[in-house]
Amino acid sequence: QYDVLIVGAGHGGAQAAIALRQNNFEGSIALLGDEPEAPYERPPLSKEYFSGERSFERILIRPLAFWAERDIDLLLERRVIAVDPVEHLVTLGDGSTIGYGSLVWATGGAPRTLTCSGHDLKGVHSVRTRADVDRMLAETRTARDIIVIGGGYIGLEAAAVLTKMGKHVTVLEAMNRVLARVAAEPLSRFYEAEHRAQGVDIRLSARVDCINESDGWVSGVRMHDGSILPADMVIVGIGIIPAVEPLIVAGATGGNGIDVDIFCQTSLPDVYAIGDCAMHPNPFADGAPIRLESVQNANDQATVVAKAINGEAVPYQAVPWFWSNQYDLRLQTVGLSLGYDNIVQRGDPATRSFSIIYLKSGRVIALDCVNATKDYVQGKALVVNRRSPDLHQLADLGISLKTLVA
Ligand code: FAD
User: The FAD/NAD(P)-binding domain covers which part of the protein (predicted)?
Assistant: First the structure.
């Protein structure tokens, strides 16, 4: 029995435990997760950890000793398979049960897999856990032709690392541009051109038929037009499915994520959900329910839950932000571009330093800044204060965004 049981020892779960202790919560806390490692940062899995620039120890969210020092029980390699909201109990994979006062559901999501034949062959990978990446790294030593399915952030980051390793990389994107779900066309075209210049074979509107095998291993990808692209390794980066089944079965409202209110409370008593698995009303989406997959969202929702459990409820209002590193390009985004009806380009992509500013009904709702940290920092206030600056001034590099906030 724990006063607070946190299920999922990733970004949100770890931060919830940290924030509870920072708020002087004195009750018992368990942080339970199904991976073998203490909580670690996930973004480096497709960036610095994958490239070898950062060791595993350097991506731990806190040093190993931290958890015991803060009297937080780390229960690793355990999976919750059922929740009893009436008895306030969870059941683990081995049949044992743990009672809770408050339950924090911070389970993230499982990588979406292909459904075509060959999707489960050896040499086909997703990128979600340290174990996934270690398996990939072991194979990259001998792999030469690598196919990345999905031109989202994770797929493109992996492609950048692998290209730098000297691999022959092909990216297959089903839409007619990369980053189509998250960015405006000029940004997509910029990244497409950058990857091509680095030698990545980017194929748009690509339709995968199946994965071919040879002796139980992947040997290539067959496309809808019958052509076959040879591959020693395939990386699938096509999104996640929120890991919410036990809570839904227990009666929580939701589907694509667990529905929560502005305090991250679910429809079940004393049960909260945070991070990638939480469908929450976001003020930067005009209060519409959305799921966000970002470290910012997981951490800030964890803080909201820690306060709510401590009896000091404050609503979730944090400004969304995100980043992506590819080659020497640092993309920083702030706000949510959902539903934009206009964009302004600030700076010339040819200089490899520029920003795309998203507007809705004349108001700034988001910025994507490439090697333009000053715009990112100063543009945040435009988003927060929902400013409607003159569009020519927004585009004018001679005018700092700071001056447009007033
Ligand atoms: P997670 O960190 O995924 O933690 C959930 C944990 O719960 C996992 O360990 C999972 O195995 C475990 N779990 C699931 N079900 C159960 C169960 N039933 N019982 C016990 N344990 C369970 N975000 C950014 O902001 N910037 C980036 O650059 C960025 N890059 C990324 C790169 C990669 C390769 C990946 C995979 C993600 C990236 N993200 C990035 C997204 C970011 O990592 C996630 O948004 C964040 O990890 C969400 O935190 P979370 O706590 O919701 O879930």
Answer: 2-302
